[in-house]
Amino acid sequence: MDTKRIGVIVGSLRKESFNKKMAQALVKIAPENLEMEMVEIGQLSMYNQDYDENPPQDWVQFRNQIKDFDAILFVSPEYNRSIPGVLKNAIDIGSRPYGHSVWDGKPAGIITVSVGAIGGFGSNHHLRQCLAYLNMPCLPQPEAYIGGASTLFGKNGEITVPAVSELALKFINTFTSWVERNSTQLVPVKNKKSAQASQHTPH
Questions:
Q1: Which residue has the higher pLDDT, 166 or 116?
Q2: Domains of the chain in sequence order
Q3: Pairwise CA distance, residues 106 & 186, whole Å
Q4: DSSP notation for 114-160
Q5: What residues form DSSP beta bridges with 111?
Q6: In this predicted model, what pLDDT tens digit does every residue of 159-172 receive, in sequence order?
Q7: What is the pLDDT of residue 82?
Q8: Cα distance between residue 137 and residue 150, in whole Å
């Protein structure tokens, strides 16, 4: 089984982020054929289309980093029933300029972690909507909306709730199979004739 490089993007910048702890826990339990790498997004300047022809260096570095991955794992909280601004900014930077999206064709997985009972459901599904447009096949099952985040982790960041540990293991193993099936078979959308019908217009 070939080794797959996975970029892990956390949608929270907080030092003690529950989502960061979940991401780190997933890295630890990932199968040997997944080479997981955390991707920082807090340093990215805000996307501005005026800079598409002469992008800031932080955009260039980020885009080049994402290009090298076979798949992307998103681990994110929910802010106001949607995607954190810092994560949306990273998605926008990677998707532009039109026709040069670094996300195109990369399989994806999503886990949302929240202190609330619904586990970031709104953020999870808003992110899925973005990924569908970006031509990123997103793992459909198991869905992972994890609530009660303040009680999930021990002092060393380990998951202490057995049911959540089981879900995390099932998720990462299923994600591995998903990446294997989709990372070499997908035809990038920019090569399809239908892509002309969904072009971004300047804004």
A1: 166
A2: 4-198 (3.40.50.360)
A3: 8
A4: -SSTTTTHHHHHHHHHHHHHTT-PBP-SS--EE--GGGTB-TTS-B-
A5: 75
A6: 999 999 999 999 99
A7: 96
A8: 31
Provide DSSP, the chain.
---EEEEEEES---TT-HHHHHHHHHHHHS-TTEEEEEE--TTPPPP-GGGSSS--HHHHHHHHHHHT-SEEEEEE--BTTB--HHHHHHHHHHH-STT--SSTT--EEEEEE-SSTTTTHHHHHHHHHHHHHTT-PBP-SS--EE--GGGTB-TTS-B--HHHHHHHHHHHHHHHHHHHHHTTTPPPGGGSGGGGGGPPPP-
CA distance 181 to 120: 27
Sign of the Cα pseudo-torsion (79, 49, 40, 172, in order): positive
Q: How far apart are CA 65 and CA 87, in angstroms?
A: 16
Among 10, 185, 30, 152, CA closest to 84: 10
Region at 84 (left for phi over 0; alpha for psi -120 to 50; beta for the rest): beta
Q: What is the band of 189 on the pLDDT scale with cuts at 50, 70, 90?
A: very low
Q: Tell me the per-residue pLDDT of 23-54, one tens digit each, with 9 for 90 and over.
A: 999 999 999 999 999 999 999 999 999 999 99
Q: What is the pTM of this model?
A: 0.89
Give the pLDDT confidence of 90-105 residue by residue, as tens digits.
Answer: 999 999 999 999 999 9
